[in-house]
Amino acid sequence: MTTGPSALAHLRHELRTPLNHIIGYTELLLEDAGPDGPLASDLRHLLDDARAVLSIVNERLAPGGKDAETVDVTALGRAVIDPVTRIVNGTRKIGEGAEALGARDLLPDLARIADAAERLTRLLGPAASGVPPSPREAGPGATEAGRVPRGVILVVDDDQGNRDLLARRLVREGFIAHAAADGQAALELLGHQPSPPIELVLLDVMMPGLDGYEVLRRLKGDATLRELPVLMISALDEVGSVVRCIELGAEDYLPKPFDPVLLRARIGACLEKKHLRDQEARQARELAEWNHTLEQRVAEQVGQVERLGRLKRFFSPQLAELIVAGGATDPLKSHRVEVTVVFLDLRGFTAFAETADPEEVMGILREYHAEMGRLILEHEGTLERFTGDGMMVFFNDPVPVPNAPELAVRMALAMRERARQLDVGWRKRGHDLGMGIGIAQGYATIGAIGFEGRLDYGAIGTVTNLAARLCGEASATEILVSQRVAGAVEGLVSLETMGPLTLKGFARPVPAFRVLGLKTP
Fold it and tell me: Which residues have a Cβ under 8 Å from the Cβ of 284 and sit 6 or more positions away?
């Protein structure tokens, strides 16, 4: 009989399938029986005969082999009749031995071997008949109890014996095995991924309906499944079939009957590559998430820097950072609070500014502002504004303090002392400038004042007017305080009563006190 390459490949596939079953199940039985078990010797003879038949089939039917052009199946049957007969008889003998030993758990696999042997003899010519039991398919998701699974694998093969054999081999190797009888069933199972998800597909090439090529093409065309590795397993050993599978995206190709060691190595390599790809994808996602988070953090930090810059115009750097970090309420929001207000300015500054050069005026102001600003920060005061030589400072906002009047008076005393030192240098240059200070305590409404693009921090209330008026009444080096402030610090400093003062904007005279200095212990 003359045959073409396609028919030859089909014949090889048909003959190798039962041989694959015989070899595979025998290897499983040998592993169960152990090398020195009572049935081990007969099982090894059975395995040797099956491999001998496979060798003859490969030699005669391989492309370019002696029967590649004209295949005489009857002659091929005669060439393998002796080992095939020994397989049939040996299987029966081993079954009887298993019965005698009470090893009935071996009988199902022996029945599968007998079934495969009869199928082989039918393909090669007349053979003894037998009624083998139907092969049993491994249940989906099967794995040996008590073992941590090494991976999850889907076996796709239209031959039930192939599915059972391969699934059992995988379970024995420590994998979770799922099975699908055809390409459509495989696609449906992968479309509704089980848990844990399938990590590798072992896919037969020759199947009715959707063959392995079409299943592979659809998998690689699905964005959710294209990264799933596929290992093709088939009795077809033609180079063209191998190339086609690789071009379609298969990870590897393994011919039937498969060698368990080679199968284990190929599966391990496929899963290792998948795990590496999964790790790369996971790292890419994490990097994208980190980049997104970083962008958000940068935007937040830019906003904080801008806000910090605005706050530092009014508060000490430490206080501004505390506010931005959430350690204090936002002072730019309008709110009402009790504060102690300190107002200071230079006596004789107006006359000085009218006669001195602008550069000299600015030099005096820079020196004065620098020294007073340092003392404001040291005493944790809040600078409300500069008005030329005038400065307004208050305590107890935005961070509450339990002793605002005391802090204000201590700062005023330190300012008076530093102003006296500055005045010595100013007098040497011919400038008569002395500083006066007024301090009051009361409620004020505080927050941002202005419009979008130009905001200032301000306090509005009678207390600010009172501090400014007391400052206006104070002479050089004099500190005047309101009655409430005097009552709060009378244990700290020596005070002198000024008597009620008539101040602009106040209907009645206002009691005032002069601060002389700290009391000695």
Answer: none
